[in-house]
Design goal:
This protein is of the alpha/beta class. Among the domains are: 191 residues, Alpha-Beta Barrel (Anaerobic Ribonucleotide-triphosphate Reductase Large Chain); 120 residues, no CATH class. It has 29 helices and 26 strands. The longest helix is centred in the middle third of the chain and has 29 residues. It is globular. Its cofactor is adenosylcob(III)alamin.
């Protein structure tokens, strides 16, 4: 992306002050990025589906035609500034991007980042191009604040500090409050506060850190975050050798017991319920900071000393395994606490001479000095997948160079909530570049998430990203100087760079794609070592892997952060409030990469659309199942699959990874112990777990686990009450019986000959006068009399069922994808592959007798319709509402966006800003009652997604890193 003014592309210290020469890679010279895009106006309306209340509305918002309805809805409602309905309100993505980019360019000019004004202009165009084409996004505070009259806060992650004094504790409350008010989150370590087992100077007994957590928790619950309805995001850490560690471990587990007791007594204890505020410690994530000494004692079964905060002497000795078991048991009960591995964290610390790393931000990805902050940005990995299904490492590296430059510039003009945070950030300039869509990328490349190939690919990409980031940091140090704290930490910083380089050398590539990326990463780290020796570094930290919740939707990512794909089916919003169920678009690409033919791909995709998984999908080899493993569902990843992926990427990150290891409801405490132990051995910096249904305050759609048992108990009670009432009064019994609709004596029929897997046969179907199917007769050629008799009996049974009103759609849904021999190729161009004769028969009947809308819902299309979809993106025939020329030129776009109840047949209006002619595309109705992908998966699989409902729009959220994000409106459960 960029080069320094020297011909070799490196920035020597002697060149300081000359600025960067920016290379044009993405944008086109002489053409502004906006002029390459087709723009359209959309109406954005968000509705709470539970109450029917309109929670947001803005008409005529302008977006590129390739942005999804979901992306434009979330950006309009979350990031556009100004009062809605006034002239001050932003109306276009152009205004939003210009507001941010122009601020960055202006600061870059003022602080000597660019060699010439022409370089500044190229930087502006390149940054704009990457943003509007969804190649990356800054974190939310940038979009909220930069270029507005508000303080220019660009950081989402904060770490505070608290000492053992009342002044410091009260200051902690105040600083957290201001951070929450601004919409961000913070974390801190309470281990400096004396335990409840130690004496005060006055002779009294100290309260201990857990008591002070109550006040901070109440403050967070009252202020909320950003003035919105969601809870604040905070992290509380306590060292494992603190004398109050057992009390800390038990805090949330005991409160969960209280929640259950109050719920059973009839109180509303759901997340956000009227009575949940009476319970303590619910507004923070808790983590125990464990040392290598403690973990070795756990392995060996030894004892461990708890130390006085004042003198450091051991005041109590505990059994290490017993304490470790209590930690895991508490996590089993309520998902808290997580673990942070102190020695691993500080072994990768670039600034140990300044101070230790004692805490993290709420999501555990940012780990640095006390009273510091970090601004984040994430790249959309799928954008860098080339047509040959290899990762474009060179272009990726160019994008990283530009983004890291922009992120560093932001610190020059940024505001901070407190002066200590501002001073530390300006002195150490911590950055957090990361990525999203890893799960989708690996699937599209035909690589399993929990496979050696998948981990190798993820590791090399992460290594390249961080290597290029530090290379650019060293180049910037040669131009605008290293960070202020570099001189005292130079030896340690360079040692960590060598550790990253050694980890990169240890990666063993397995295929062409990761080998290409690894070569680029190896060269980048060699440049880091050389340039760092000459120039130092501009930034103490460069990379983290954040949840990417809201900004992931802004980039239209299928997956967030380092996460695998959530599910194989997705919920897509359409114009007018409708929705449709779609199979992930990466699946056909993955199947093609794996060598499947178009007919096979179509059959597999149709199967996934119906079942939500790939088990027994027609023609799919079992060895390819792992490519389609997801976070939930029938082929959900094992817990250690998540841990191993994190371990593959962790050595190439300055910070850590925001991710929760999900376990099934029947997981044991010992399994959680194993996850925590293996995470330490594999070199992770932090681990959090979540066991399904371990918390009461997680509203479920269909009641899995405990909720299912509660629902069953209530149903039994209701049945008993109804039975008692029935016994005391006479009830009139009404019987409903179906009526047979017989066919006329003379009816229209058609006979179809077919071949399935070499077996020949004939089907005769008869219809009523209105065209509705009424009978079917099947005959297989050259078959024995027994099979002929069975087919006759089957035909009679189906025919009678049809005449008694059984919908043909029901038969089609039950008998398609039924798998037995003979199976294989057919002689029917509309149904090229069949899994059995029954599969073929009912697909053919659907094509002959069902409407297009009904067939679309079942994923059955004719050959002509499939060809049309390849050419136009639509299966539906175009209605000729204008001239032939108008129809050819009319773009196919989604023109308006709303969030409301799905309707039977939604229309996608097709128009551009010039008022081109329209065409209409019927949308496939989503699964009844579903409003998000999480709810859709619940409907398809019959299992619950254990996550909260969105406070804004009422839909089921889904996991993103260590928090939850709403697909409907972009709200998060706590992470900014």
């Amino acid at each position: 992306m960029t080069e320094t003014v020297s011909g070799a592309g490196s920035a020597q210290a002697s060149q300081r002050g000359k600025g960067l020469t920016i290379q044009r890679v993405f944008s086109t010279e002489g053409v502004h990025p906006y002029d390459e895009i087709t723009w359209e106006r959309r109406d954005v309306v968000q509705t709470n589906w539970k109450t029917g209340e309109t929670v947001f509305e803005q008409r005529g918002a302008e977006f590129p035609d390739f942005w999804s309805v979901n992306a434009s809805t979330i950006v309009t409602s979350k990031y556009f500034r100004g009062a809605v309905g006034t002239e001050a309100r932003e109306q276009s993505l152009r205004q939003l991007v210009d507001r941010v980019v122009h601020t960055y360019v202006k600061a870059g000019r003022e602080h000597g980042y660019f060699a010439t004004d022409a370089d500044a202009e190229v930087f502006e165009h390149e940054l704009t191009w990457l943003l509007v084409h969804q190649y990356f996004s800054f974190n939310s505070p940038v979009w909220f604040n930069v270029g507005t009259q508000s303080p220019q806060q660009v950081s989402a992650c904060f770490i505070l500090s608290v000492d053992d004094s009342m002044d410091s504790i009260l200051n902690w409350y105040k600083e957290e409050g201001f951070i929450f008010k601004g919409g961000s989150g913070a974390g801190l370590n309470l281990s400096r506060i004396r335990s409840s087992k130690e004496l005060l100077s006055s002779g009294g007994t100290a309260s201990g850190p857990v008591s002070f957590m109550r006040g901070a928790d109440a403050s967070a619950g009252t202020i909320k975050s950003g003035g919105a309805t969601r809870r604040a995001a905070k992290m509380v850490v306590l060292d494992v050798d603190h004398p109050d560690i057992e009390e800390f471990v038990q805090t949330k587990a005991r409160e969960e017991d209280k929640i259950r007791a109050l719920r059973d007594a009839g109180f509303d204890m759901d997340l956000g319920g009227a009575d949940i505020t009476s319970v303590q410690y619910q507004n923070a994530n808790n983590s125990v900071r464990v040392s290598d000494e403690f973990m070795r004692a756990v392995e060996e079964g030894g004892s461990f000393g708890l130390r006085s905060r004042g003198t450091g002497e051991v005041i109590e000795t505990v059994d290490a395994r017993d304490l470790f078991h209590k930690i895991a048991k508490a996590a089993w009960e309520c998902a808290d606490p997580g673990l942070q591995y102190d020695d691993t964290i500080n072994d990768w610390h670039t600034n140990p001479e300044t101070g230790r790393i004692t805490a993290s931000n709420p999501c555990s990805e940012y780990m640095s000095l006390d009273n510091s902050s970090c601004n984040l940005a994430s790249l959309n990995l799928l954008k860098f997948l080339k047509d040959d299904d290899t990762f474009d490492g060179e272009t990726f590296a160019k994008a990283v160079e530009l983004i890291i430059t922009a992120m560093d510039i932001s610190i020059c003009f940024a505001d901070f909530p407190t002066e200590p945070i501002g001073q530390t950030t300006r002195d150490y300039r911590q950055l957090g570049i990361g990525y999203a869509n890893l799960g989708a990328l690996l699937m599209a490349m035909g690589l399993g998430y929990d496979s050696d190939g998948g981990r190798s690919m993820a590791a090399t990409i992460t290594s390249l990203m961080t290597g290029v980031s530090y290379k650019r940091s060293a180049e910037l140090a040669g131009i605008v100087g290293p960070y202020n704290g570099y001189a005292r930490n130079a030896t340690a910083h360079k040692r960590v760079m060598r550790k990253h380089q050694a980890a990169n050398d240890a990666v063993r590539t397995l295929h062409v794609a990761d080998n290409q990326v690894h070569k680029l990463a190896t060269q980048a780290w060699a440049d880091v070592i050389k340039l760092g020796e000459d120039n130092g570094f501009r930034n103490a930290q460069a990379s983290v892997l954040a949840p990417t919740g809201t900004i992931g939707f802004m980039m239209d990512c299928d997956t967030t952060g380092i996460e695998p794909d959530f599910s194989l089916v997705k919920f897509k919003k359409l114009v007018g409030g409708g929705s449709m169920q779609i199979v992930n678009q990466t699946i056909p690409r993955a199947l093609k990469k794996l060598g499947y033919q178009p007919e096979q791909v179509e059959a597999i995709v149709a199967y996934i659309g119906e079942h939500g998984h790939v088990i027994d999908a027609p023609g799919l080899k079992t060895e390819h199942y792992e490519v389609f493993d997801t976070a939930m569902g029938a082929r959900s990843l094992k817990p250690m699959g998540h841990v191993r992926m994190m371990a593959a990427c962790q050595p190439f990150l300055s910070g850590a990874i925001s991710k929760t290891v999900n376990l099934p409801e029947d997981a044991t405490v010992e399994e959680i112990e194993e996850v925590y132990l293996q995470s330490w051995k594999l070199g992770l910096k932090a681990t959090a777990i979540y066991r399904d249904n371990c918390k009461v305050g997680q509203p479920l759609s269909d009641g899995g686990g405990k909720a299912k048992k509660d629902a069953a108990d209530k149903a039994d009670a209701a049945d008993a009450a109804e039975a008692a009432e029935a016994a005391t009064k006479v009830v009139e019994k009404i019987v409903y019986a179906p009526t047979r609709k017989r066919l006329p004596k003379s009816r229209t029929s058609r006979t179809t000959s077919f071949t399935v897997g070499g077996a020949e046969g004939y089907m005769t179907s008869g219809a009523h006068d209105d065209g509705e199917l009424g009978e079917v007769f099947l005959k297989l050629g050259k078959q024995g009399s027994t099979l002929a008799g069975v087919m006759d009996a089957f035909s009679i049974a189906v025919s009678i069922g049809l005449q008694y009103g059984v919908p043909l759609e029901t038969y089609v849904s039950k008998f398609t994808n039924l798998r037995f021999e003979p199976a294989g190729l057919t002689d029917d161009p509309d149904v090229r592959m069949a899994q059995s004769i029954m599969d073929y028969i009912f697909r053919r009947l659907a094509l002959d007798y069902l409407s297009f809308e009904s067939r679309s819902a079942l994923g059955i299309y004719s050959a002509e319709e499939r060809q049309r979809h390849l050419e136009t993106g639509s299966y539906e025939p175009v209605e000729e509402t204008g001239s032939a020329a108008e129809l050819v030129d009319a773009p196919v776009v989604e023109a308006r966006a709303t969030t409301a109840e799905p309707v039977e047949a939604e229309l996608v209006e097709t128009k551009d800003t010039e008022g081109a002619s329209a065409r209409e595309v019927p949308a496939q109705r989503s699964a009844g009652g579903a409003h998000t992908t999480a709810e859709l998966m619940e409907k398809i699989t019959g299992t619950a997604v254990d996550s909260p409902l969105c406070f804004t729009c009422g839909t089921k959220m889904r996991p993103a890193g260590s928090c939850y994000v709403c697909e409907g409106c972009g709200s998060t459960s706590g992470c900014s």
